[in-house]
Amino acid sequence: MRKPFFLALALLVLSTATTAQPQVQWLQLDSCKALALRNQAAMKNAALEVEMAKETRRAALTKFFPSVSLMAAYYHSQHPLVDLSTDDERDKIEITSHSTGETLEQQINDLQQRITDLGLDINVRQFVESFIADYGVDVSIRMLDHGAFANALAVQPIFAGGRIVNGNRLAKLGVEAAEEKANVTRNEVEMTTEQYYWRVVSLNEKLKTLDRFQTLLDTLEHDAAAAVEAGVLSRNEWLKVRLKQNESSALRIQLTHGIALATRALCQYVGLPFDENTAYRFDSLPYDIQAEMPLAVNPSQAVEGRAESRLLQKAVDAARLQKAMAVGEALPQVSVGATYGTNNLLGNEFRQNGMVFATVNVPLTAWWETAHKVRKENLQRQLAENQRDDLLQQMQLQTLQAWNELSEAWQLVSVRREAVDNAQENLRETGHYYKAGLISLSDYLEAQTLLQQAHDQLIDQLIAFQLKSLQYSQIVQP
Q: Does the model's pTM come out above 0.90?
């Protein structure tokens, strides 16, 4: 009965140990670059800027087509907008003769005087008032108290001083500039990814070197302890070995924490969730690198092919188009259009009407202001040209510097590799001398330390060559 129990317990412990093993995930340089280009905020923003520039260009294209607008309105006023009425105000009416210019009151008085002079007894005023009372007409005109109207208007620009054409050219230039900026951002993201990646690889390689060095120290400490017990080695020499072991343990802790932090930073940059329970694995550093040095590219040709130089030239082109846009503000503007609408403003039935028209707008007083704007745009163009020329010269110097640094890094790789070989040979010979009792244990420890330092310097130099090679390829790429 006890055997099945122990067997089940062993299976449970084995399964627990199996499930407790961390998950392994390999991170290669190319996959990290692909993740960074897809997930980095800078690349997303660059893509958004390209789309924004394209939308601006599409909006500029609409200026070539007619602009159509619709308008409709309804109103209802408290009092009519037009009110012509004689009702209840007949005593205020004044009738004027078109032949003499006299009013009715003046004519009545003149006629009454003439009849009186003839000796007739006739009341002209009473006769006229009786006639008006019998045959008069009340006048009452009230309108525009309510109504509605709708109207459609289409205007086609024929000539707008070249601003429509130049505006579209400027919008197209904006798309090209946004795409060039995206290329620059892409290079920056790739460079930063490689820096993060090789940082992790460097720390891992140094940890491997430290493990080999620590293994030698453990063996040496065991032999030194036995020699101390045998009385052939002083305790002071053994303590020096222990001190080296303590230094190695402290350095291991620092490297372990540095690897964890560098791995987390890499995952954050490429947009990969970091899991503390995952064991991340990376590419090994190519110690036996035999890559040939790339051919040097003429700095002037290299600069001409860079996205940065194309961006500088587009800034100059944009300044020229801005000047043309400023000149267009003072040129005549010609457009044609048509309008059609319906209304019932008189309060009865709806009436339709249409009209075609042509307009010419000549901004006579705009020349003064435009002259100053044109001068300003000329200065802006000169400023862009000066910046372009200055930065192109700086980029030529940058190209030369990148080539020198790459050449130096390539040469130093050979120097550091030779230093490792010399340190290994020194350690081998020192070990023979130590075993023969010709040198002290301190000298042997020093030889091991020199080998470790040579390995670390070679690791740093190999990574520096990788980064300098990428930097130069980005500078001289077409």
A: no
